[in-house]
Amino acid sequence: MSKILIRGARLLGGEPMDVLIDGERIAEVGTGLTAEGADVVEGEGRILLPGLVDLHTHLREPGREDSETVLTGTRAAAVGGYTAVHAMANTFPVADTAGVVEQVWRLGKESGYCDVQPVGAVTVGLEGRKLAELGAMADSAARVRVFSDDGKCVDDAVIMRRALEYVKAFGGVVAQHAQEPRLTEGAQMNEGIVSGELGLTGWPAVAEESIIARDVLLAAHVGSRVHICHLSTAGSVEIVRWAKSKGWDVTAEVTPHHLLLTDELVRTYNPVYKVNPPLRTEADVMALREALADGTIDCVATDHAPHPTEDKDCEWPAAAMGMVGLETALSVVQHTMVDTGLLDWSGVADRMSARPAAIGRLAGHGRPIAAGEPANLVLLDPAYRGAVNPADFASRSRNTPYEGRELPGRVIATFLRGRATVMDGKLT
Ligand SMILES: [Zn+2]
């Protein structure tokens, strides 16, 4: 493998440094580096971060290849600066056996654009009744450590308790999609002033918060580890903050869209804004930003949820829930967290790489930029400003809420173990 010299990029937003990549690893970090025969990548004015890690991606394969495949999803991930993604289990068939998680893991290896770590289902068929083969998935070649019925909530307290107890044996974690099903029957959007005015069935904050409260208590009771997916309310932040203050092993994520968008957008009746959990209020958005800044929320996770046009381009009540997010996540985080002064670039590296890698027990990712470390890196231009054009997406789907919106920042290059998956903003 050839050598690559990234010259004069600001490491984690700090001082300009040179980084020499030799093969799969970082060989040297310093100033005034030279290397005979190395390809030089100009880093001036650019930021160098560890490759991003997503804890929450829907790659849709097997079963819904019309919306995304492992290949198209990992290409989208590379464009967004990601070097590893966790693939959620709500595929067809559901990833609830060693066979299915190994299939997804193998497809990820073949794609070559980004590492794919399969998430295993907590219950058979995501039906919430019987625990899936958690141990077999953990022992499989896919080495599953994160288990989730995402898309559905593990609402049975006994099943949740058993899952939490089971994953302790291999250092696993249960990632909960917190949605009390009875309180959200037929729910279409956040319950509040806007839902009242529009006459759409509301999705109360308490439906999320009551499950989170129960699950942090359960995790503490059995001494296990719980991760809360896509926090969306100020109340959820308060519960997680309280659980952490007790020293319990609780982590949480927030999506880029919940850091930026509010339920006021539902007034357009444009289903591109229909998502689970729903967009909340301005006060919730501000609480989520603050919690990500102070570390109460551990990480940003995209909840990249591709859907074909026919599933989104219909009447609000019939439209599928979800948004694509891999290719815009870093820009939205720059806009909401960095450009507002809430987080610096080393904070972004922590919340989008180091912490998600630690939560997912992912070796080789989220590492410091230092000699000897795997060369998983993203080089970005923070000065770039441009409107989002879904036609440019590498994802197979186009359901972005940011079409035409000007966002800052652009990924210039992504390196996966020393190999450029993206160069000059384009897939290699
Ligand atoms: Zn979910």
CATH class of the largest domain: Alpha Beta
Mean pLDDT: 97
User: What is the domain total for the residues?
Assistant: 2
Strand content: 15-25%
What is the string of SSEs from the N terminus onward?
A: EEEEEEHEHEHEHEEHEHEHEHEHHHEEEE
Give a quick account of the main beta sheet: strands, pairing sense, barrel closure.
Answer: 9 strands, mixed
The best one-word shape is globular
Termini separation comes to 16 Å
Total E-strand runs: 19
Query: What would CATH call the homologous superfamily of the largest domain?
Result: Metal-dependent hydrolases
Number of helices: 11
Structure class: alpha/beta
Helix content: 25-40%
Which ligands appear in the coordinates?
A: zinc ion
Rg on CA atoms, Å:
21 Å
Binding site for substrate: 58-60, 90, 276, 307
Binding site for Zn(2+) 1: 56, 58, 150, 303
Pathway: Pyrimidine metabolism; UMP biosynthesis via de novo pathway; (S)-dihydroorotate from bicarbonate: step 3/3
Binding site for Zn(2+) 2: 150, 177, 230
